[in-house]
Amino acid sequence: MKERIEQLKKEFSEALAAAATEEALEALRVAYLGKKGAITDLMKSLRDVEDKKSAGQWINEFKTLAESEIASAAAALKDAAIKAQIRSAKKFNPTLIAERELGSYHPITLCTKDLEEIFMGMGFTIEDYAEIVGDYECFEALNIPKHHPARDMQDTYYLENGQLLKTHTSAAQNAIMKKYGAPLRAIFPGRCFRNESTDACHENTFFQMEGMMIDENISISNLIYFMKTMLSQVFKRDIKVRLRPGFFPFVEPGFELDINCLICGGEGCPSCKNSGWLELCPCGMIHPNVLRDGGIDTEKYTGFAFGLGLTRLAMMRYGVKDIRDFNSGNLKALSQFKSL
Ligand code: FA5
Fold it and tell me: How far is the CA of 156 from the centre of ligand 1 (A)?
């Protein structure tokens, strides 16, 4: 029995070395380990052998060896096939546009681009600002000293070095005033972060677009004119808005500009927390303390600022009921939107 097994092992090794394809390997497996294979035959012939214990052990060792060598050879073949595929793959050719599926702008990007166009047409520059800022930019330069209750409305994520993820685009106001001085017209879109629970109209990561206009004789009439122009151009239809008093330490007077919910037509739904209105664009006349901190001469200049909720605007513009869909990464859903 021992010689027979040794002879079969030798034949198996030669056949394994010659098996260069997956098919050949499978045929080898069937020939040795299959129902009618050589090793199965050896098992069957055990009944005629005297020293069944030793013979059984030899056959089992052979079987284990055959199984593991076939498995390693199969893995090596697969690996070689993948490498060959990679080597022979077509090189990426950016000129073959027809072969690629084109990407699309995220709906928030579409809104941002349209708003940038609208404001550029009215003489505003577009500014970019950091997402990680200091306590000074985010709060203190905005007339929100340490321990001011207004900070409770905007809890955020802090870094170990004391910096934080900005809670609002207003965090860029001070730097932009210092950069350009007055007169000034600028918008600055950006991503904001708040440590708060999410629902159909609240996200912990969302976009705002800040706007500032500082010049001689700027008044609330200018603010209302720019807000109306922006909204009618971005929605390209008449929409109902309401202006009501709002408190923000960095503006005086301050307003809340709400939009009649376009999801339910004002009836009340989860997207507007059943109120029929959605807070969209708080605004107001920049507080003299904030202007002074930004190096602006408050004897000569006044200005307005607004903080448009860009993600909420995209919800209303495209009829998206749940704000969380924008961060879902669902390409099928997000790629269906176009500029209005
Ligand atoms: C502010 O962030 C002020 N910085 C806005 C401002 C700027 C006021 C300039 C005056 C002058 P508020 O926290 O209300 O305010 O946020 C502004 C807008 O951002 C809201 O009206 C809303 O549209 C949007 N927003 C706020 N929090 C969230 C959130 N968690 N998820 C989605 N959108 C939000």
Answer: 14
Judge if pTM exceeds 0.85: no
d(CA 229, CA 85): 57
Dump pLDDT digits (tens) for 224-272: 999 999 999 999 888 899 999 999 999 999 999 999 999 999 999 999 9
Question: Angle 280-283-288 (CA atoms, 0-180°, nearest 5)?
Answer: 160
Question: Distance (Å, rounded) from C-alpha 20 to C-alpha 117?
Answer: 63
Mention every residue, 6+ apart, whose C-beta is less than 8 A from residue 114. Answer: 233, 234, 339, 340
Say if ligand 1 is within 6 A of residue 279 CB. Answer: yes
Domains of the chain: 2-88 (no CATH), 107-337 (3.30.930.10)
- Cα of 269 vs centre of ligand 1, distance in Å, is 20
Q: Is the CB of 258 under 6 A from ligand 1?
A: no
